[in-house]
Specification:
By secondary structure, the chain is an alpha/beta fold. About 25% of the residues lie in helices and about 15% in strands. α2 packs parallel to α4.
């Protein structure tokens, strides 16, 4: 379930500063009644820190169309906190019984649909791990293995600092402003070669195809007569080299 504590769906404004609504989505754990108490403490703590947190427990005394109410909360919230727990993940992934946590299954379906419609709004859907829970309770569609998960170790500023910084737009580190680009003088040196230079040093015997500069003595051997009309194709000898006939 999720909700707000007596506020309208619109983001709150205080001291001229817009405060986005923060929607808490959670599931009751049948075997862990302390989990719901932790969710209640988180809601109270966030509101004490100036965060417009909203929870269904604040609306439980009024008769409502809960399906419409949940849809409005998800649609209008600046942040949706998905409170990790085994029951929540089971319901969000469609593995729960049809008669169990029907409100959570409906709510999680709305969240999945909103996330699917705008997958780049990663900051809007925030997985939160409260004391006694673990990352294993985060639904798969929030990619807990590859995206940020916000642990709350205690309901204090120190214990929830990472989450508070996100919700109140107070990053821990602010990038240094860009300074002027330094002027770097070119270094003197030999200009690059205009083309390819091949150098051969030492004595060379054989056939050389000149493709660059050659330094040092070069000895070339004659390739001999060409085999053809003037040479014996078997021996390469010319007619002049053949032995005379008596």
């Amino acid at each position: 379930m999720a909700g707000h504590g007596g506020d309208s769906g619109a983001p709150g404004t205080r001291d001229g500063v817009s405060r986005p609504a923060v929607f808490l989505s959670y599931a009751r754990e049948p075997d862990d009644p302390a989990h719901e108490e932790s969710v209640l403490r988180l809601w109270t703590f966030l509101r004490s820190c100036g965060v417009d947190a909203r929870l269904d427990l604040g609306e439980a005394g009024e008769r409502r169309d809960w399906a419409l109410w949940m849809a409005a909360q998800i649609r209008e919230a600046g942040y949706v906190l998905v409170i990790a727990s085994p029951a929540y993940r089971r319901s969000a992934e469609g593995r729960g019984q049809a008669h169990e946590e029907r409100g959570v299954q409906w709510e999680a379906r709305l969240i999945r649909d909103a996330f699917y419609a705008d997958p780049h709004a990663l900051n809007r859907f925030v997985p939160v791990v409260l004391p006694g829970q673990s990352v294993a309770g985060v639904p798969d569609f929030l990619a807990p293995a590859t995206s940020t998960v916000y642990p709350v170790s205690d309901f204090t500023v120190e214990g929830a600092e990472q989450l508070l910084r996100l919700l109140t737009n107070q990053p821990e580190f602010i990038p240094q402003p860009l300074g002027p680009v330094p002027a770097l003088a070119p270094r003197p040196g030999r200009p690059p070669d205009a083309g390819v230079r091949n150098s051969i040093t030492g004595d060379v015997t054989g056939i050389v195809i000149q493709a660059g500069s050659i330094t040092g003595p070069v000895t070339l051997s004659s390739p001999g007569p060409r085999a053809g009309a003037d040479a014996d194709p078997r021996t390469g000898n010319t007619a002049e080299d053949a032995p005379g006939r008596d």
